[in-house]
Amino acid sequence: MRQRIMSHVTVLVVLSVLLTYLAASLVLYHKYRGDMQADVIKEAEYIRYALENVGEEYLAKDLGQLTTSRITVLNSQGEKVYDSNPEKDQENYGEMEEIQEAQDQGTGQALRFSGMLSHQTFYYAVQLENGDILRVGKTGDSIFRTMVSSFPLLGLIMVLILALGFLYMNYQTKKLIEPINSLDLEKPLKNVVYEELRPLLKRVDQQNRQIASHVEELKQAERVRREFSANVSHELKTPLMSISGYAEIMKNGMVRQEDVPEFAARIYDEAARLTSLVQDIIELSKLDEKEGELPLEMVDLYELVQDVCRNLALPAGKKNISVKVEGSPAKIRGIRHVLYEMFYNLVDNAVKYNREGGWIKVSLDPGENGPVFTVEDNGIGIAREEQDRIFERFYRVDKSHSRKTGGTGLGLSIVKHGAALHQAEIRLESRLGEGTKIRIFFKEPEKHPEG
Question: Which residues are paired to 123 by β-bridges?
Fold first, then answer.
């Protein structure tokens, strides 16, 4: 940045000096030429007055030494009568512009360059009363010679200006850049030195906040991962140890023959629990993957609800629980097996955590903004302080009851992930000892043109 500023300043200084020099030269040249022309005309008028009143006696031989101008007198035939500088004698005076104008108009003037444009001569001619022509000429440096002769001085001035400019700009550049180098990028908006930098600093601050948020999310994800790994290890270890223990007892012949069916039933129950746990873990892992990899299709939610309730009719009947299904067909664009798992887990929980002879109401309403799925029961309910955590992985409200019913602690977590996948909202209402009501609000399905 500093080098760029210096190079730009150098160009500006050089251009400024050259343009200033050119403008000053033109102004001085025009002033000098105007003054010279005025002096020549005034001198010619003085000499004319003297010649007309004194006579040719005024034309003394030493008149040329009294002035730097060249004085020439021509008769009416164009022949030279007097020349203050005979060494510069010229022929064909009659063809000269100023002489012809003086003969025709009484006065004439001309400006001629000589010596490769290094000198210029201004001539002024006036016609006398007797018909003679008086011409006065004065030579001086042209603008080109004046500019060329000033180049050494111009170069010296330019070097001095550049040196001073570099020193000054080096100081100013350091002073300008120092606040930028001293910016606190952790808190960029704390002290904004230059308002021009505020938009950039705002973006830096926004990025800092995003990075901090992402770091916190990563830390949270890492904590969840570690907790999940620990819970998975514990949950898998428990049924495996039970199966291993029962099998070892049977292997060593320590079980009476009449107790073998009971031990086999326990092994079967633990194996079923282990299978259910593994299935839930696999399902949850699928939901953690990229959403775009899962196939979307138009799904009739009411059809799924009826299918789920039919499959859970037997467990509900064993506890003498009545299941009532209400609603009408409603379709959304989603993932069929994920939606089925969501509905199944919610209705299954309503069966598991219900009391003998209880009731369950499952409904699907069109809703104003999209279908609403509802599961309501009069089971054990959920305490208020527990309601914010029931969708966490492996979290159980009643751990002893969950073990007894075969719950894995992943069902509601699958529901939460499935709802997020379908951009749906979950609402929970529950009172301890009175029952639970869970609703899922889906969005209106997208309209697709037929065909």
Answer: 110, 137
